[in-house]
Amino acid sequence: MADLTRYVKAPTSGWLLALNEQEEKVSLCAYTKVRLLRQMTGRTYFKVLDGPHYGVTASLKNENANVYLGQDAPTRNDAIVRVKYKELIKNWYSPIKDEYSDPQMAEVTFDGLTAKAMLNSEWGTGFSPIPIGTYKILIPDSPHQADFTNYYREHEPGLRSDQVWFPIEYGNNSRYIHPGHLSHGCVTIHELSKWNALYDYLIKHRMAGQQHVGKLIVSP
Question: Do 58 and 149 fall into the same domain?
């Protein structure tokens, strides 16, 4: 029996747009697992088998399915990202945003690499750094606004997949691992040259189950 399992090969944006059965757009991140169902009227139909659209039937034009659905599978174990609290810096200057903030800094380690991050940069507005503990990292949910990160690419031309943010399973899951120079309680990678490596590491991993890529371990 033919193997009908495929995995999304996302374009450079990090998101593949498909249509669900209501002909609404569905955004799928790289390595999303799908099962081929049928071809009909020039389209390839498939069922999504992990991530926020788990169980959804979606479709692509046949020619796009041939390009963006392949057999390159993710690594089936946990990605591990460690975050260590560092100093809180007063009047830290972002040359990209041309503004000052008071970020709680952190060091992020993953896959033998380190990156500089901030855990919060706006105070008195309900945001706070993520508490010490261990959390699960979810499969990316949907494209985040290009306006949030477009100007980072002007300063870091090699930056990619900057609209692919990884939700942290905590509270209402509104904290993310993402690139940038502004943090609302997220793990925000301000060392932009390290984002691509962290993105590649996270997106290529899947934990057991259908919703997570790995674990975030936050220490003092």
Answer: no
